[in-house]
């Protein structure tokens, strides 16, 4: 088992603490929170060991799980890496691209591993269909959330849209060519609603919409590719896969056949991949443990987290 410590005991930090405490791949040593009152309260309520000094906690573990506000990600990660510790760091990886690139340098220098908490990569709906997504040419995503003051310290692009940016970058085998975007501030000082159009060098286009002042929650993505349409509902954990193939010479009575203007006939059929229930946060943490033990590349590497941040910041810059 890997000895792990958590930095940050806020809403998400407490979830990480609970899951790490349950995990068979980690031994939860304890946690640090700069708010001593909150730290002692969490320790008293749940029985976790509270460290009042960040360096003492880092020294006591093999893995540091960083679940602090984005502005402190870099400082926490740098402390841990320079002490030779592996890091799991919540998304976005850092506040600036320069910070993220320095972490990449430090990761290689100190020969440690890092993973970024892009949890939607472990959403069972996405994992159920990811292998069906091949060279999509048009992608549309909607990530809408009811207002919650938590997270409004950063633009909605870094708070919500970055989940979809990361997922898209993981399935589009091409570099970004051009970005157009717009954002509007309604309640916060930073944009609460944003729309971005990302054009890739291979011709793929992705249209992303994110809002944190919606009247309802929605997290849906649709992928269009040659002879297939794939819909992923991240919120409801549902998928829909519609495929086309050349129509048979003698179609059955219930076969769905389409004929275009040139007379080409295609048969439409549906696939229903099984969506297995899971705890996505536990899965992302435990696959990181596997990457450390087996010396493999983490599912969401620091480099991938940096790429997602780079695109997110380009979107913000184009507002």
CATH architecture of the largest domain: 2-Layer Sandwich
CATH class of the largest domain: Alpha Beta
The SS-based structural class is alpha/beta
β-strand percent reads 25-35%
Alpha carbon gyration radius: 22 Å
Low-confidence runs:
none
Shape: globular
Total domain units: 2
Largest sheet: 9 strands, mixed
Please state the average pLDDT score: 95
Task: Identify the CATH homologous superfamily of the largest domain.
Answer: Dihydrodipicolinate Reductase, domain 2
The ordered H/E elements are EHEHEHEHEHEHEHEEEEEEEEHH
Estimated helix fraction: 25-40%
GO molecular function, one term: nucleotide binding
Domain GFO/IDH/MocA-like oxidoreductase: 156-216
Organism: Cellulophaga algicola (strain DSM 14237 / IC166 / ACAM 630)
Protein name: Oxidoreductase domain protein
Map the helices and strands:
Layout: E1 2-7, H1 11-22, E2 26-32, H2 36-46, E3 50-51, H3 54-59, E4 63-66, H4 73-82, E5 86-90, H5 97-110, E6 114-117, H6 124-129, E7 138-144, H7 156-171, E8 176-184, E9 193-200, E10 205-211, E11 218-225, E12 228-233, E13 238-246, E14 256-259, E15 265-271, H8 280-294, H9 302-317
Parallel strand pairs: 1-2, 1-4, 2-3, 4-5, 5-6, 7-10
Antiparallel strand pairs: 7-11, 8-9, 9-10, 11-12, 12-13, 13-15, 14-15
Helix pairs in contact: 4-5, 5-9, 7-9
């Amino acid at each position: 088992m890997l000895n792990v410590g958590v930095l940050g005991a806020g809403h998400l930090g407490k979830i990480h603490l609970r899951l790490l405490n349950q995990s068979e791949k980690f031994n939860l040593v304890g946690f640090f929170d700069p708010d001593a009152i909150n730290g002692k309260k969490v320790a008293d309520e749940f029985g976790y060991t509270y460290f009042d000094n960040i360096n003492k906690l880092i020294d006591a573990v093999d893995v540091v799980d960083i679940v602090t506000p984005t502005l402190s990600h870099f400082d926490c990660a740098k402390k841990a890496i320079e002490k030779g510790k592996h890091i799991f760091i919540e998304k976005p990886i850092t506040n600036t691209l320069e910070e993220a690139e320095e972490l990449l340098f430090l990761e290689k220098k100190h020969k440690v591993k890092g993973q970024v908490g892009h949890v939607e990569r472990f959403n069972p709906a996405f994992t159920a269909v990811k292998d069906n997504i091949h060279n999509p040419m048009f992608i549309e995503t909607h990530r809408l959330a009811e207002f919650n003051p938590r997270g409004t310290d950063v633009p909605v692009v870094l708070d919500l849209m970055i989940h979809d940016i990361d997922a898209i970058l993981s399935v589009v085998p091409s570099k970004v060519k051009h970005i157009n975007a717009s954002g509007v501030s309604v309640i916060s000082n930073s944009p609460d609603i944003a729309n971005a159009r990302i054009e890739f060098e291979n011709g793929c286009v992705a249209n992303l919409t994110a809002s944190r002042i919606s009247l309802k929650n929605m997290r849906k993505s649709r992928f269009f590719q040659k002879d297939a349409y794939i819909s992923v509902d991240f919120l409801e954990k549902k998928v829909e896969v519609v495929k086309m193939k050349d129509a048979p010479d003698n179609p059955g009575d219930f076969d769905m056949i389409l004929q275009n203007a040139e007379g080409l006939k295609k048969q439409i059929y549906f696939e229903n991949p099984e969506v297995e229930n899971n705890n996505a946060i536990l899965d992302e943490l435990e696959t990181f443990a596997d990457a450390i033990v087996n010396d493999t590349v983490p599912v969401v590497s620091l480099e991938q987290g940096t790429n997602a941040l780079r695109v997110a910041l380009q979107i913000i810059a184009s507002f």
